[in-house]
Write a structure and sequence with these properties.
By secondary structure, the protein is an all-alpha fold.
């Protein structure tokens, strides 16, 4: 009888241990699934943040290219305007010098 009670007790303990192991494995599997869901959410959040940063950087680059293009066009226009004004100034100075020279020639003729 003692050996039968010992055997039944051992069998009961093994069944309880197996049941507890199955419960622990199921619990661990469930927690692993929950943590994977959390990791996926965090990864999606990071992906979304990176996507927003990438779009922002791209847009800033586009704006910078547009502004630089406008700046270069305006710089060329300004350079052309300055060159045109220099040419006008040169013609005015040439006319003044020619007028000054002719005044000297006529003064020299009159005094001779």
């Amino acid at each position: 009888n003692d050996w039968l009670n010992s055997y039944l007790e051992e069998k009961n303990v093994n069944e309880l241990r197996d049941h507890a192991d199955r419960k622990m494995k199921a619990f661990a599997k469930e927690k692993k699934g929950q943590s994977m869901i959390m990791v996926d959410r965090m990864a999606k959040s990071k992906d979304n943040g990176i996507l927003q940063q990438s779009l922002l950087i791209w847009r800033i680059g586009q704006d910078l290219d547009r502004v630089m293009g406008n700046y270069l066009e305006e710089k060329e226009l300004l350079k052309a305007f300055i060159n045109k004004q220099k040419e006008k100034s040169k013609t005015v100075v040439d006319r003044m010098l020619k007028g000054n020279d002719s005044a000297r020639y006529s003064m020299a003729w009159q005094s001779w």
